[in-house]
Amino acid sequence: VNCQLSIVNSAHAQVNYQQEYKNAKLLFQEGKYNLAMENFKKIIPYDQANDYSQYASFYYAVAAYKQRYYSVSKDMLNQIKMLYPNWEKIEDVNYWLALNLLETGEIFQGIKTLNTLKDKKLQSQAALAKENYIKKIADVETLRMLNEENPKDDILAKALAVNLSKNIASAADREELEKIISDFKLDRNEFIKEAPKSYFKDVYSVALVFPFVINRLDPSPAKKPNQFVLDMYQGILLAKDTLEKQGIKISLRTYDTERSQEKLKSILEKDELKNADLVIGPLLREDNALMQEFSAANKVNTFNPLSNDFDMVRQNPFGFLFQPSYEVLGQKTARYLSEDPLRRKKKCIVFYGSNVRDSVLAWNFITKAEEAGIKIILKQEVFKEESNKITDVLAKATEYDEWKAPSQFTIPKDSLGAIFVASDDPVIYTK
């Protein structure tokens, strides 16, 4: 009788493990990961009657990952690797361990672990995961190091090529990009967009696409509402005369957009414009997208004469800015400061406004200045309504003399070599 009872109890215990596992797995499949973890936890401990310990440990770790409990998940997966190194699902363990490593910033170890996978299905999933995480890396040096450690990894190579193509800063960058394209047989046109080689003509066709709004002009000598457009046109006529005296002939055509996008669309459909050597315009920001699309599609060089925003032409190899971009302004200012032997040895402060333009200008200055060894002691964003903060930083006294006149300030006298203000708001820069 005792023997029979022992057999029944043993069978009952086996059924309990099985049922607990089924319950936990159902909760997992329903996305109730917290409850699933609680149920899996009950059947993780080793028992001769428990055939589900390894699977419970694995799904416990995956459920933890799903809830972003990365350290918990990673610890459990490492425990599985230590206790069951020959388990049939060890490849899956490595896959999820790699995802945890990537999520916690251990990119190099995560990529290395993904690259050890031999299962074809997991390799496919690993490639997708790798692409997803790698595209988040903006630092070109990190991508270079990853490529050095994984020289045959086409996903890493392509990610580096994409990064380099966005900012080819030197001949070395260009050479590196060309080598990656060649080694991994990438589509060159995807990474290097080039305008056709220059060639000379007897007469160059130049089109001005400006908001002249001629139908609103009056013949009076008074200043016109769009006077700056007319002044720019007069300047272009003077430039044309100068060039023709030098033997360069220009056929100048003008088109009036009338401040209307519908009118601009009709102008851009003209065959004569598609055959122009150069288009100058538009002047209005809202017209830029149409013009850049036309320029890229027809391979017509286009100059924006007013904007400093490189994003307006960034995606168009035939689009140019006449004015220096905010990036270049920031970088060149830093270079100018670094070449001044007296100022570069002193400290620098950077104030910048709250819009994107100001941030781009400021951080390009900061990056190049710090690369040149200039010590920036303060980088402060300033909102218009808080402009008094500038005065607080620059003129706040910390000590007074016997006549109660300021003798020491927050920033010691003669300690600054420069103050860089990235803002066109007078409320900020006049401080």
Care to describe what's here?
By secondary structure, the protein is an alpha/beta fold. The chain is 52% helix and 12% strand. The strands form three sheets. The protein has a five-stranded parallel sheet with strand order 2-1-3-4-5, sandwiched between helices. β6, α17 (356-371) and β7 form a beta-alpha-beta unit. The longest helix has 28 residues, at 2-29. It starts with a helix and ends with a helix. Mean pLDDT is 87; it is low at 1-15.
Terminal CA distance reads 97 Å
CATH top level class name of the largest domain: Mainly Alpha
Please bin the fraction of helical residues. Answer: 40-55%
Mean pLDDT, rounded to whole units?
87
Cα gyration radius (Å): 33 Å
Please give the number of β-strands.
10
Number of helices: 19
Main-sheet strand order equals 2-1-3-4-5
Indicate the proportion of strand residues: 5-15%
Low-pLDDT windows of residues:
1-15
Name the helix and strand elements from N-terminus to C-terminus, one letter apiece.
Answer: HHHHHHHHHHHEHEHHEHEEHEHEHEEEH
Please give the largest β-sheet.
5 strands, parallel
Domain tally: 3
Question: What structural class is derived from the secondary structure elements?
Answer: alpha/beta
CATH domain topology of the largest domain: Serine Threonine Protein Phosphatase 5, Tetratricopeptide repeat
> What would you call the shape?
extended
CATH superfamily of the largest domain: Tetratricopeptide repeat domain
The CATH architecture assignment of the largest domain turns out to be: Alpha Horseshoe
